Amino acid sequence: MSESGNRWIVRVVLVLAALLLAGVSVAPMIIEALNNKDARSQTNNPNSPSGRNSSNPDDIKAKLEDEVRGYEQVLQKDSDNQTILKGLVKARLNLLALKKGQGTLVSDDFKPVIEPLERLVKLNPQDTEQTVLLAQLKESIGDREGAAQNLRAVLETRPGDTKAIQAMVSLLMNQKRPEAAIGLLEETLAKAPQANKIEPNSVDTIDVQVLLGNIHANQKRYGKAFEMYEKASKTDPKDFRPILAKALVLKEQGKIDEAKPLFANAAVLAPARYRDEINKAAIETPTPVPTATATPTPTP
Prior knowledge:
Elements: H1 3-22, H2 27-44, H3 57-77, H4 82-102, H5 107-123, H6 128-140, H7 144-157, H8 162-174, H9 178-198, H10 205-218, H11 222-235, H12 240-252, H13 256-269, H14 275-283
Keywords: Repeat, TPR repeat
Organism: Brunnivagina elsteri CCALA 953
Protein name: Tfp pilus assembly protein PilF
């Protein structure tokens, strides 16, 4: 699996498990993480237009706005220029990141990113990452049906796409449809052997099992959750993800003594670059697991 894929999987375990337990939307956090990553890339890269000569937020904002105007001028003459569309999306995401650092984002803030991203998706439908990001943005403005259509389009051709699965599960959970989310994951697992036979590693079985366990934990079906984590561990005993997921659930239940050795084991098995995150998760103060019926639907 690629480095970016590995980082996504770790985010799935560390972030999605905790958020599903707490009943919080995943999509806005993913978008925020993408925004912050791009903003750091711009501000830390002295060769980028918005990172050159100044790290002052107002200066960066002015330069990003100049970039946006430049991209828009080019698109007036060449509306299907994918390189320019990608630059426009990135610049507007960076502007969102700056605004997020100064306050709360509202639905309308995401709309300037959606329009060029929709054009990119139409021009380049095989780029599933763009389609998933578009779906997450649509969910953030309340267009859940539009988000679902985008995600279904990805899953029809790539049923094991990790990011699309995560986003669809988030969408279904926010709609208070945990059984639909469970059905999606169970169907993915049922089709995984054949899919992986046709295209090796196209479905990350362990990731899907861990996510399914997380949803059962969200619904307080802890026995089923732990059963899924055990199945995942049997698939690969050296994979730290199901161990970490179980540790997080035990911690949320207040079973700190049972969780501690699992956190320690997960840290040993995990690549070195993830150990600080795991150790941090182990010592953070747990919050009570809420009832499933009290799951809030956040305002974008």
